[in-house]
Amino acid sequence: MSASNSIGIVSEQRMNFDTPLQFQSGAVLPRYELVYETYGTLNADKSNAILVCHALSGHHHVAGYYAEDEKNPKEKNIGWWDNMVGPGKPIDTNKFFVLGLNNLGGCNGSTGPSSINPATGQPFGASFPLVTVEDWVESQARLADRLGIKQFAAVLGGSLGGMQAMQWSLSFPERVRHVLAIATAPRLTTENIAFNDVARNAILTDPDFHGGNFYQHGVVPTRGLRLARMLGHITYLSDDAMAGKFGRGLRAGKYSYNYDIEFEIESYLRYQGDKFAAYFDANTYLLMTKALDYFDPASNFGGDLNQAFAAARANFLVVSFSTDWRFAPELSRTIVKSLLHNRRNVSYAEISSTHGHDSFLMQHEHYHKVMRAYLNNIASEFSA
Amino acid sequence: MSASNSIGIVSEQRMNFDTPLQFQSGAVLPRYELVYETYGTLNADKSNAILVCHALSGHHHVAGYYAEDEKNPKEKNIGWWDNMVGPGKPIDTNKFFVLGLNNLGGCNGSTGPSSINPATGQPFGASFPLVTVEDWVESQARLADRLGIKQFAAVLGGSLGGMQAMQWSLSFPERVRHVLAIATAPRLTTENIAFNDVARNAILTDPDFHGGNFYQHGVVPTRGLRLARMLGHITYLSDDAMAGKFGRGLRAGKYSYNYDIEFEIESYLRYQGDKFAAYFDANTYLLMTKALDYFDPASNFGGDLNQAFAAARANFLVVSFSTDWRFAPELSRTIVKSLLHNRRNVSYAEISSTHGHDSFLMQHEHYHKVMRAYLNNIASEFSA
Known about the structure:
Chain A has 384 residues and is an alpha/beta fold. Chain A has helices spanning 133-146, 160-171, 190-204, 222-236, 239-245, 264-277, 282-294, 305-308, 329-341, 365-383, and strands spanning 9-10, 13-17, 21-22, 28-29, 32-39, 49-53, 65-66, 85-86, 91-92, 97-101, 116-117, 122-123, 152-158, 176-182, 315-321, 346-351. Chain A has 10 helices and 16 strands. The first copy, chain A, is globular, with a radius of gyration of 21 Å. Chain A starts with 8 loop residues before the first strand and ends with a helix. The mean pLDDT of chain A is 96. The interface between A and B is large, with 56 and 56 residues.
């Protein structure tokens, strides 16, 4: 990740919402706060706004870094998609006004299970409602309203973020001109739900989870979160990428015949697991995986995705990655077919990449060229 | 699984060994017991013996059922490969003398971590040495010695069992005429090691594991075992098999927006996890996964599998299954190539099956035909 043409110093902003939000589940949140960041300048007719939706562990800090990190460049907290978003980058902040937010239910500043419930003075914990992709899109639309954005030039995201981007075209067909759905799926496969269920069970059965109200016990279900993240990492990578990076390499050069770390891959997974468990909220993790499982626009139409996409008015770029076995190209092709069935304008790029599902976050020449070209065309719509 | 032409009532047998066994790790087991079963009749020149090696959660009870189960046919404890082994079945007990044993370190009767260590009067627990495939083959050879079997007509197994079968051809080239290596690999991929590591960590970090000495605490690391088995089940099945069997089916017909079981696949996985955790020993699970990770005959020859197989004298049948992504056909082809390089007689069957890694345990017409044909040829060597 190069910060050479970074957007530079950014700062987070906050917006409070006092209008109750009714969730798909029926639950109502009387008020909530969203944390967000913006990069670039909203043009006069507010036609150059792009919404970046985040995936499972993402947040509002998409690009740039914070002022307080400038003194310590090594520890600089650079946004999670800084290689994609910035001046002169594929999502060019010289042209676009880019909005990133932390989704409702998150743990990076927006109201979520770890936030204090004003009604009780205690963290929401288990009482925080399960959120769906539809709910997020509703909350994002309200944020757009407050920012005066009537229509996005584009809504985009990878993985769970791509689901939100697609949902925008269904919930608010007139409010989004382009959807960029990257490394995503019209619904999870059974296998994906199964992996999510194992991850959830690791957290739910951790004795430190306390039914979701661990905050009051002064503990964190670290073991469960760690296992969930380790498992996640395996499925985000490709078999080949893992083999290429770690092979059967041994830390000590030989077998030690015990249960300590032996293989390099074990060291990597445990490090990633420990790192994640130290900062991510367990309830948010659970909630995010459920949102993934629930997303299934075709289910409102007897399983017919063609019918589901009939409401869409946007133009689409769909991108998949050859070695992504969690959100396989086959699933993206299903999206493309249904869009074509509905005579949508759709571009599809199947990118050859060895990095599995994680590819969507990575600096990859062909991928970035495709994104840049598509976004340049969008920019020409309003800058011409 | 049909018991219509079952071998019928079988009983387990036990053999005690007083000659210390030195493990690859350097550890020494002064004495141990192996539990085993035999089916069919050893012929006069003892040339019709087949050794069936078991995989991760297998054991000595390969076929038939026990006398005490006859009163309760519904609860009948039928052997794990009863569809393959029996009179008139592919491994025909009218022709062969079939030997199945519970591997050392197991939890079904052979000496393992849950056995009492005579030196302390307490279960071995964490003090039981880690066992390798080579160690198992050594212990199996000693059992063969005691049964008067100088040479096996065939040694065979699926998955981890296939690794043992291959190792027989390397450790005791003159003692095995045929190796049937099914749904196996010359060594685990990085991804496989990664999955094993997550499963192990689920057990190792379970507060009830107590460093492997949970027996003395009167508890069992059920949570960890359950997670390990749930994860295992996902990887034993194919994506398609799971989709076909469970799809996105919901138990209640609609989302319930909580963390109870919602999808059918969750119900299946949790049931399998609970069932397994109720009877399997956590230390044995750990040890078995380590044996899988360690197996890598090429590692003694700078990674050159051709050199590793130079010692082999047996004829080979290698079988793989099209949807087995954990032990993919590609890995079996690597074995075949190295055997051909060494001018071994090798037959290879890549079976089209939707059932993933689990295919090797299932009744599948083509697969069983291949096995039957190959084994009939073996039988003709001594019955002609």
